[in-house]
Amino acid sequence: ATPLSVMVGTGKGARAGILIRSAEALETAHRLDTVVLDKTGTITEGRPRLTDVLPVDGWDGTRLLAVVAAAEADSEHPLAHAIVTAAAERGVTAPRASAFDSVTGRGVRATVEGREVLVGNARLLRAEGVDVSEAVELAERCSARGRTPVLVAVDGRPAGVLAVADTVKEDSADAVAALRRLGIDVVMITGDDRRTAAAIAAEVGVERVLAEVLPEHKADEIRRLQGEGRSVGMVGDGVNDAPALAAADVGLAIGTGTDVAIEAADVTLISGSLGGVVTAVRLSRATMRNIR
Ligand code: ADP
Ligand code: MG
């Protein structure tokens, strides 16, 4: 595109709350045929809250919540924050944990009142040799409704499941539909549970889901799609998303997300709404049409 049409396009973007970092990004966006959307904080609000406490037989709900809140007290994960906040709101006093250890993309391990506590996904518990069969049914009850199941084991045995829900942003479904009308394939990527992700995807009309992706593998998934000959846009908000945003043909960061994501991206969507992705593609197509 000519410098003038790039300037016009960039200016229009800025007025629409879309900050485009380079002429190259504005030009490349017109040929995107695939857009990958992170789930938490991108499709959803990213403000998860605790909805259910489901103890296994022999465990009390309040006691379970106290133990989990203790184990999660030092975690910076949004799921941990939801649990610790809910415990405080319900007046549940968490004992103090020791030997806290976080396992990226899986959960946490802590010692609470001398007992070994594991909190996270089924993969974490299985990796630690816990027989999760007793908790699986409880977990599936949550994931079928789009809630994230947080499994708990105490001294190597399942103690229960906590469900955490995150609301889909108001215009996510509209944005997905608009992208598809532009001829773009939409893919969801997340570290979250497969069934939870599928339920959220169905809610917003996304057909292809990459779930249970470890943070360090998100960028690999982008490169794999590029290897299929696709031109890929990635939309994300988290520290986890930064490598994938950098690997994509065009990285678009949610403006309300982390600085690390914004720095790795070519475009920032100030409002955080996915409608900005649609506007960015339209703007790029219009800019490229003007110079031909
Ligand atoms: P995402 O932000 O997309 O969910 P993460 O890689 O941060 O991806 O986490 C992946 C999964 O690991 C979570 O969905 C959850 O099941 C588990 N997990 C990670 N950290 C925690 C934690 N502190 N407490 C409970 N579960 C966790
Ligand atoms: Mg996210």
TrEMBL record:
<comment type="similarity">
    <text>Belongs to the cation transport ATPase (P-type) (TC 3.A.3) family. Type IB subfamily.</text>
</comment>
<protein>
    <submittedName>
        <fullName>Heavy metal translocating P-type ATPase</fullName>
    </submittedName>
</protein>
